[in-house]
Amino acid sequence: MPHITDPTAPAGPAPHRAPAARAILVGALAAALAACAPAPPAPEIAERRVAFEGPLPPMKSFAGAPTAPPIRSNREIAQDFLDLSFQMESGRRLPALARFEGPVRVGVRGNAPPSLERDLEALLARLRTEAGIDIRRAGPGDDANLVVEVLSRRELQRLVPQAACFVVPRVTSWEEFRRARRTAAVDWTTVRTRTRAAVFLPGDVSPQETRDCLHEEVAQALGPLNDLYRLPDSVFNDDNFHTVLTGFDMLMLRVFYDDALSSGLSRAEVASRLPGVLARLNPAGQGRAGRAADPTPPEWTRAIETALGPRATPAERQEAARRAVRLAEARGWRDTRRAFSLYALGRLSLGSEPELALASFLEAAAIYRAHPETRIQAAHVNMQLAAFSLSAGQVEGTLALVDESLPAVSAAENAALLATLLLIRAEALETAGRGREAASVREDALGWARYGFGRDDVVRARASEIATLARTRADR
Known about the structure:
The protein is mainly alpha-helical and 476 residues long. It contains 17 helices and 5 strands. A 5-stranded mixed beta sheet has the order 2-1-3-5-4.
């Protein structure tokens, strides 16, 4: 069945197509997308170009824009801050708040790609203006106390096989880390004040992947070390939908470095000061009703990790996704965790049960669309639905799904997803006989794809994959 690998959501093996079920899926899709009022299919195109030869357009990059503040209540945000700041992802408790208690000066080591320098400067500017942190590049006479070291992915994963990138306390080089590995020196639970830290990330991946690592790991080097699946608007969430620091994330860091807090404070001490800090920093959250957070049970996290991890068989992964959906239903969730369970089930059911995949995507989309802070999640689901729609020849439905998603994707600075949606849009326009407009959109898409996917051969393969979706109707 039509499927496009989601470039930024947790990845698993791409399901194979199941042609025998195509007629059932197309019928279900037509009904599901009736609200988009699809026009009658355009005349079939006898031949479609799927090889993209010649030079690619220049790489595009985001100019950056102010982020929107969180829209939840300060009561909820206070609970999020405590859960993020006093626990590790592994579940280990952190006994005290630990932060840098002076200026942070950032150095770069290794073979940094040109895009990293630009993205780092943009990130540091945001941290100064949005989070109020005294952070900048180390000058000639400065000692860097936060170092970003660029390695090859192979070298990085030779020591930490499952990590795309990571941050370590009390060291400022890869060699230091190698010597201190598996000692208390690099144990975050022993840190009372942060004095030095190193971020290790790959430089031989796409510019977007390097930037995404930069944002999350620098944020954790400075502030919270935990991730919470319940957060709808944060990079501190293992669902990986947000790829750059959000308004919520900047608020977390601003609170972390507020003068009312300091290194060494216990959870209880921080909790007693948070209401006043948040009332001052986020006055809009004072008048909003809030709900106590429903903790994420370990069995749901294990199910999601199995579903999206590399170690289980396809059948085991799909069953794990089903289990995550059942657990979400049993707890009465109508939040991002239920929607993410459905999204995972949809992706893992594409090859074997396309009707289930479509139903799962539609239910996930309904949950995500109901909340303004989950527009980027809705865009990821729309991308999958648009792939179905394009393959089914539903031109207007495809265009509606793409156009609904583009503002959120641009605001989230996700070039890989933006390129994918624009390529889908170009193919839909081509199908509708609007070739000149399609060529312009495709040119734009390929510029974003160079940032989102990196190597030229990967960009061309992505474009051909999407063109093939549109060609399936003519083949039928």
